[in-house]
Design goal:
It is a single chain. With 519 residues, the chain is an alpha/beta fold. The protein starts with a strand and ends with a helix. It has 18 helices and 20 strands. It has helices at 11-22, 60-64, 66-70, 103-113, 117-139, 146-155, 161-169, 172-179, 183-193, 205-218, 229-241, 284-291, 299-305, 344-355, 370-373, 409-426, 442-448, 502-517, and strands at residues 2-7, 27-30, 42-43, 52-53, 80-81, 85-90, 96-99, 223-224, 245-247, 252-258, 261-267, 272-280, 313-321, 335-340, 358-359, 365-369, 383-391, 397-398, 434-440, 486-488. Strand 6 and strand 7 form a beta hairpin. The longest helix has 23 residues, at 117-139. Strands 1, 2, 9, 10, 11, 12 and 20 form a seven-stranded mixed β-sheet that branches. Strands 7-6-14-16-17-13-19 form a seven-stranded mixed β-sheet, with helices on both faces. A two-stranded antiparallel ribbon has the order 3-4. The structure holds flavin-adenine dinucleotide. Flavin-adenine dinucleotide (FAD) is lined by residues 7-13, 30-33, 38-40, 55-59, 61, 251-252, 281-282, 286, 314, 316, 388, 445, 449-452, 457, 459, 490-491, 497-499.
Length: 519
Amino acid sequence: MDDAIVVGAGPNGLVAANRLADAGWSVLVIEQQPEIGGAVRHDSAVHPGFVHDTFSSFYPLAAASPVMRALELERWGLRWRHAPAVLGHCFDDGRWAMQVRDREATAQRFDDEHRGDGDAWLRLCDLWDRVGDDLIGTLFTSFPPVRKGLGLLRRLPRAGGTESVRLLAMPVTQLARTCFGGRGPAAVLAGNAAHADIPLDAPGSGLMGVLMTMLGQTVGYPVPSGGAGELTRALARRFEASGGRIVRGTAVAAVELQGRRVAGVRLADGSRIAARRVLADVSAPALYDRLLPPSSLPPRVRRAMATFQWDPGTVKVDWALDRGVPWSTMPAAAPGTVHVADSAGEMTASVAQVAAGVLPASPFLLAGQMSTTDPDRSPRGTESMWAYTHVPQRVHEDAAGELTGRWDHDELERFADRMQARIEARAPGFGTRVLARRVLGPRELEARDANLVGGAIGGGTQQLHQQLVFRPIPGLARPETFVRGLYLASSSAHPGGGVHGAPGDNAARAALFHARLGR
Ligand SMILES: Cc1cc2nc3c(=O)[nH]c(=O)nc-3n(C[C@H](O)[C@H](O)[C@H](O)COP(=O)(O)OP(=O)(O)OC[C@H]3O[C@@H](n4cnc5c(N)ncnc54)[C@H](O)[C@@H]3O)c2cc1C
């Protein structure tokens, strides 16, 4: 009998598997898809010679995460690449707000636009220097984060005390207004906050915006050389070198119990595999509503799961371009990540519309120029590009009065046209450079990774009411479940979405701790 089965080979499953194998456990990973990696994979299906990341692309969270760093994946073949500039926000007048790794250079650009914003930018960087490491440590450990949390509290007085706490607690729109006068820093902060689904005028968005922006300033927005799947391959190589085994193309249909303890799993073909512990890199609803027998669920868990909230859906478009993007004004340094919106105000409205079930007429686009970032992604002189935007889980209305949210082939293509038109407006002639286009809507994303329910990319909303002690549900905010030996290891657990490995690491730590106690 194996010491542990890990269900799902996403980044969190593979981090958990590595942790347990490092401790000398025999570990079997079972993955439903023919390919491992979950939402960290690449493929060449869009156009011959082009590599596209099927889902995620940029990994500042992985680069900063103490969990991922401890795995030393560079020793297992991972090589990071960086674009000339971290991030560019492209306004409708063709001008750019730019963030580069050099903080002084970023500050200078903001100061050129609005006198004083440069110093304000450097003050924000200085605040991050004082609290950033502890904040990341606090976010990425199990709740409650006692050790790192105390470190953070100790450092706060020298980092501006309650004034700084208040600043970070602000909605990102208010934080930007408080610190800056120009539109550049506001757009960069708001765009980065919009990587999560927290409304940009709600508390929590400021912290998210500062976190992602300051990671851009410190570790950059790196990508794995050759494609996102190279990060997965490094995780798998490391795990298999310690004796770990991975089965692909096999879905786990149920978690088997013996009384109130886990006994193993049942596969889709009915066969059973026994294990002392099971770590589930599946969504919280999949674990509690499908993999566990309904009769095992305590009423309080059933009630709480009924209120679990998914984050919005996603439509992602991949393009193979025969040349680079013809931006009407070329930025001085080419950015890997591009935000497309007219203003921070427009982004705020767009995020609010999605939350209200309205399909935005002018969706906020998060885009990636991948060959700019990693020239190995496509033939010299071409560009492997993508953009995604969020859409409501249930569409009540289309602000443009065209679509229903049925997301059949025709609707997806028309919505992709709407997204592409936003780029075309800033890069006239973009359409003439398209060799091939692929559109992945909510259904296509979920078919490739069952955790992406309705195209949700975060394992559940990242809003305050489903974070910290409330993630995934009140009363079950640690990796432990109500079944002994069963742990939730996916992004549905604290601290949520993103490739940082923390939910997987937290689940593995909990399993190791209980094993030491003989539980
Ligand atoms: C379009 C998109 C863009 C993103 N962009 C970024 C980004 O740029 N940077 C970033 O940091 N994050 C990004 N994310 C988020 C990030 O990819 C996820 O938060 C992360 O992959 C979550 O990891 P996970 O291991 O919890 O789950 P997943 O990566 O979803 O992996 C879960 C795995 O479990 C498997 N599985 C599910 N059920 C079963 C079952 N019953 N039996 C066996 N196997 C099963 C699935 O097939 C899958 O392989 C993006 C996500 C998407 C979808």
